[in-house]
From TrEMBL:
PANTHER family for this protein: TRANSCRIPTIONAL REGULATOR, MARR FAMILY, TRANSCRIPTIONAL REGULATORY PROTEIN
UniProt-recorded name of the protein: DNA-binding transcriptional regulator, MarR family
GO molecular function, one term: DNA-binding transcription factor activity
Residue ranges annotated for the HTH marR-type domain, each copy included: 1-117
Length: 131
């Protein structure tokens, strides 16, 4: 589904995912984006170039160190691009969640919380990092 949304928005699935990181975390350096995504700095440069051409982000130099490039998401444009593509999904998801009792929702939350912990641990192991 995310790949289909991305294509409709004129993005690749991975670019859509990385744009989500920028929306979630806000402005960051290119190096921070590289660390967050696992992309090389060269790949991040290409990613930023693609986003900048679509006016989804803006580059600016850090005031304290002009070697650092700060990536600023253009949240208004990003949201205007993506929110309409998720409206029906969001509405149906809200209806689905409303069909569960509070007790059932707590079970679902527990499952997802623990599943995320397992995915994080697995990712760290695959990347050769201690969790």
């Amino acid at each position: 589904m995310h790949e289909a949304v991305a294509r409709r928005a004129g993005l690749s699935g991975t670019d859509h995912k990385y744009l989500g990181f920028l929306i979630e975390k806000g402005q960051m350096t290119a190096g921070e984006l590289s660390t967050l995504t696992g992309l090389t700095t060269g790949a991040v440069t290409g990613l930023i170039d693609r986003f900048e051409k679509k006016n989804l982000v803006k580059r600016r130099f850090a005031q304290d160190d002009r070697r650092k490039v700060i990536i600023e998401p253009n949240t208004e444009i990003i949201l205007s691009l993506l929110v309409p593509l998720y409206e029906e999904f969001r509405s149906k998801s809200e209806e689905l969640m409303a069909s569960f009792s509070n007790e059932e929702i707590k079970v679902i939350e527990t499952y997802f919380s623990k599943a995320i912990d397992i995915m994080t641990e697995t990712t760290h192991k695959l990347n050769g990092k201690q969790s």
